[in-house]
Design goal:
globular, about 400 residues, mainly alpha
């Protein structure tokens, strides 16, 4: 018997997903589709697709946006706020803990071994998630499958998600399936506070104790990252590299790659890597500033436009536009599988792990957390055997 959707049930689910949801944005939105639409029936296909379309149109990390959209669908501002907190908090706390270990011991050499296995298994997880998303959102519509294929090829070729193409795909489907009868033009710091002494432990990263100006720089930089970067959580990585390594020189290349690895081996949204970066730069204060900066725009871009988006969602033109954007999003996600696969699968053990993960998921429905733990242990074993050889 399917239990009815409740606020407490959603909070428990997103706390679980934030604590054990491995695989990055593609896998996370796939879990939401499987668990909340197919298995529990808490949201209709239309509600899920509408939330996915708005998430793809707005800047910021895709999985966090979709979670907030579903929370808003259930309980408006309170629902969106509760879901955002419980979804982000577990991975934030884990990432801060890893940041503290990294600063204390000068690096985490085991990351490379763990990510060797985990990264390959994740490819199997996201391939399955991308396929299920495509079949859910497009059914037998040939036009939408064509958009899916084009966006998959473009994403794989350019290794990036081009925001303008999502809008163009939406407009194209609108004009083909529901052309409007007429086109209308719609024009439609308190210095004393910051100068107060902070506990050095809370503001100490890899370098010296951070100053208030550094905290403000962190907050502003990551706010820009959350407000202007479109696509999945992985789309933010090039933007972060340009600012963190090349512009501000907060971290070097190796430290930045370690930060990305932490995001991939911890559950929850991949963009939580900002908390690790913030901690390395300015301790706990830096982690909090980075987290607030990157997630606050995401929250506002959902809560503010959603009532309008919901009001007009039954309009034929809006429905056609949403279908086009959703097909484009599914295609981009499929293309991202190829891009990520090139980076995670580079020898026969990683190829075998990816295939094994896909088979175990598809044929035997093995839970993803068990796959991730098993892949990480295999990664350790392979590295140990190679070191002993």
């Amino acid at each position: 018997m399917i239990q009815p959707r409740t606020t407490w049930g959603l909070i428990r689910y997103f706390l679980y997903l934030g604590s054990l949801g491995f695989g990055g944005p593609v896998a996370l939105i796939g879990y939401m589709q499987r668990d909340l639409v197919e298995r529990r029936g808490w949201f209709t296909k239309e509600e899920y697709v509408k939330g996915l379309a708005l998430s793809q149109l707005a800047p910021g990390p895709l999985a966090a946006q979709l979670a907030i959209c579903l929370g808003y669908t259930h309980g408006r501002v309170w629902g969106a706020t509760a879901v955002a907190v419980v979804f982000i908090a577990p991975s934030f706390l884990m990432t801060v803990a890893l940041g503290a270990l990294y600063v204390a011991y000068g690096g985490l050499s085991w990351m490379q071994a763990a990510f060797y296995g985990v990264g390959a298994a994740v490819i199997g997880i996201i391939v399955r998630a991308a396929w299920k998303l495509g079949t859910l959102t497009m059914a037998g519509d040939r036009l939408l499958w064509g958009i899916f294929a084009v966006m998959a090829l473009v994403t794989a070729w350019t290794e990036s998600e081009i925001a303008l193409l999502f809008i163009l795909c939406g407009v194209f489907v609108l004009l083909v399936q529901a052309p409007p009868r007429r086109l209308l033009a719609l024009v439609g710091s308190n210095k004393a506070l910051w100068s107060a002494p902070w506990p050095a432990l809370l503001l100490t990263g890899l370098g010296a104790t951070a100053t208030s100006s550094v905290l403000l720089d962190i907050l502003w930089f990551f706010t820009k990252a959350g407000a202007f970067v479109f696509g999945s959580g992985l789309a933010i990585v090039p933007f972060l590299y340009g600012g963190v390594v090349q512009e501000h020189h907060w971290l070097n290349d190796k430290q930045f790659l370690d930060a990305v690895a932490v995001a991939m081996i911890t559950p929850g949204p991949v963009v939580i890597t900002v908390a690790f970066i913030g901690y390395l730069v300015a301790g706990l204060g830096g982690a909090i500033a980075a987290g607030i900066g990157v997630f606050l725009p995401v929250y506002l871009f959902v809560v503010i436009p959603y009532p309008w988006f919901d009001k007009w969602s039954a309009n034929p033109q809006v429905k056609a536009f949403v279908k086009g954007v959703t097909a484009a999003a599914a295609g981009a996600i499929a293309g991202a599988c190829f891009v990520l696969g090139k980076r995670a699968i580079f020898d026969w053990p990683t190829a075998a792990l990816a295939v094994a993960a896909l088979v175990l998921l598809w044929r035997f429905k093995v839970p993803e957390p068990i796959l991730i733990v098993g892949a990480g242990l295999i990664g350790f074993a392979v590295f140990w055997l190679r070191g002993a050889a």
